[in-house]
Amino acid sequence: MAPPPATKVSEFNQKDNHWYCNAGLASDITIEIDSVFFHLHKFPLMSRCGKIASILEESQNSQAEPFSTELVEFPGGPETFLVVAKFCYGVRLELTPKNIVKVYCAADFLEMTEEYGEDNLLVKSESYFHKTVLRNWKDCVLSLQSSEPVTPRAEKLQIVSKCLSALSMMACTDPSLFGWPMMMYGSLQSPGGSILWNGINTGARIRSSESDWWFEDISSLSVPLFERLVQTMKSRGMRPEHLARAIMYYARKYLPGLGRWQSGEVGKTRTVFSMTPAVVDQRVLLESIERLLPEKKGKSFCRFLLGLLRVSMILEISPECRESLEKRIGMQLDMASLDSLLIPNYSDADTLYNTDCVERIVTHFLSSERNISLFSPSSLDLEASPSSESLRKVAKLIDDYIAEIASDVNLKSEKLCSLAEALPDSSRSLHDGLYRAVDIYFKAHPWLSDSDKEKICNIIDYQKLSIDACTHASQNERLPLRVVLQVLFFEQLQLRSALAGCLNTFDTESFPAGQTTTATDMAGKIIQRDGWVTVVRENQALKVNLESMRSRVGELEQEFGKIKQEMQKVVKSHSALSSPRLLARKIGCKLLQQPLDQQSDTIESVVRSPRASVELARPSRQSRHRKSASLQ
């Protein structure tokens, strides 16, 4: 039987689960695929498909008409077989990036080689895949995404590995090196970076020079494909910070809870071409993300890890994955922020925040070698710091954390103390942060007894409190009396040591540097540590002013004595009836006419000593007055 002319096949009709070909001849073969039946003709199929030809040869003894067979596990399902059937009937085939992988796999499954027809479907598919798909970023992503249903057959044909290799090569290569014309997102790009439409410069600029231009595109891939693509890029030498940002972008897209604690790239989603988001199992995704993340550190990276830890507690992932996240965070705890460290308690515990998790992270921080490498400069908010500085940063962070959770009425005092004592004493130069946290805890727990408060206060080293903290503690009614006395004692002791050290330092300024005593050095350290240098200098200035005032008072007393002696001589040389004006003229004063009984008071006011004036100004001696001797 000769095959019907291709021109006679105008269309394929569907009725329920049955497909029919308008060839003008009765169907003599029925092929079943996934409960869908195709009523076709033997000759067009045998002339193109080696598998169907083999099936018909093996069943020659069967006289049943029409012949029926089922193709089990046909790649692409009924939709792809319909495309293949149309090709067999001479219908013009249109290959696209979305159907090429399935058609390629179907052609391989049906053995549509050159042996069964020139320019057969397998050759056409292979040529289109290598010459078109693998050379274009968009087509490659779309083809890789469409390969999910036919993964086993696509893996056999190395379709997936070739797509991954092509994508990693284009992502690792500087886009400016592609030259012109470069097919990107379906548009031609000029050497200057403008998008061309029909060869005309539109003036629009694409963002190919940025390192994140491919993040949104590959986020449409499934988790297994994304994981394989990241590993392929890593093997090709992709920079770790770029991989980390791509992983973070992918995680934020499919783990919505991360956006609540993240900032920056969360709202930067760009839709370059139409892509269908992948269906993702969030638990599988989170565990895959944890495996893919590089062993690096950075501020935004640490914040992302803490966000992952929150989501992992909500999803209840495996303990191994959660412990790995805690270790990663512990290695860079010095770059964490307080708000990201406040992890809510998602279990049935009474406390608001998960303090056990934070305590484990601190333990990992202390036990880690802290030799984790940083990202390269200008990426992921880097900040390098030595180990001692990192320890001080973590101590301040934990003090602020304790102060934040101290207001929780269900927080046990033992947990507060264990968090404070998790770090060594050398990590804190001042204990003001611990004192603030303890004070907040006492305010939120007014029912605590003095004995319980004293146990909690044992985490504070009173010798490491600043003057402001000591002043506040000495007047704090929430502290036990014994604690207040200890604070006052150490405050006086430190002030005395600081003052003594400062005075000794001033006294030994003229001597060589090697002759100062150890006590002076210790005092100087105390002064510099607690910020008392200004206070000591002010005390010195007051002391100098006091000495100057004393010398001035002495000079005034001497002058007063001379004036008094001269006045006594003048008084003795005149009789009691002498005119007061003569006396005034003698001492260079002009007196107004006034009654005689007021003259004695006037003279008394003139000859009063300066010391008496100072004493009258004192509150304790306001009621005392001196009376000068009346003039003879």
Automatic annotation (TrEMBL):
<feature type="compositionally biased region" description="Basic residues">
    <location>
        <begin position="621"/>
        <end position="632"/>
    </location>
</feature>
<comment type="similarity">
    <text>Belongs to the NPH3 family.</text>
</comment>
<feature type="domain" description="NPH3">
    <location>
        <begin position="212"/>
        <end position="494"/>
    </location>
</feature>
<keyword id="KW-0175">Coiled coil</keyword>
<protein>
    <recommendedName>
        <fullName>Phototropic-responsive NPH3 family protein</fullName>
    </recommendedName>
</protein>
<feature type="region of interest" description="Disordered">
    <location>
        <begin position="598"/>
        <end position="632"/>
    </location>
</feature>
<dbReference type="InterPro" id="IPR000210">
    <property type="entry name" value="BTB/POZ_dom"/>
</dbReference>
<dbReference type="InterPro" id="IPR011333">
    <property type="entry name" value="SKP1/BTB/POZ_sf"/>
</dbReference>
<dbReference type="Pfam" id="PF00651">
    <property type="entry name" value="BTB"/>
</dbReference>
<feature type="domain" description="BTB">
    <location>
        <begin position="27"/>
        <end position="97"/>
    </location>
</feature>
<feature type="coiled-coil region">
    <location>
        <begin position="539"/>
        <end position="566"/>
    </location>
</feature>
<dbReference type="InterPro" id="IPR027356">
    <property type="entry name" value="NPH3_dom"/>
</dbReference>
<dbReference type="InterPro" id="IPR043454">
    <property type="entry name" value="NPH3/RPT2-like"/>
</dbReference>
<dbReference type="Pfam" id="PF03000">
    <property type="entry name" value="NPH3"/>
</dbReference>
<comment type="pathway">
    <text>Protein modification; protein ubiquitination.</text>
</comment>
<keyword id="KW-0833">Ubl conjugation pathway</keyword>
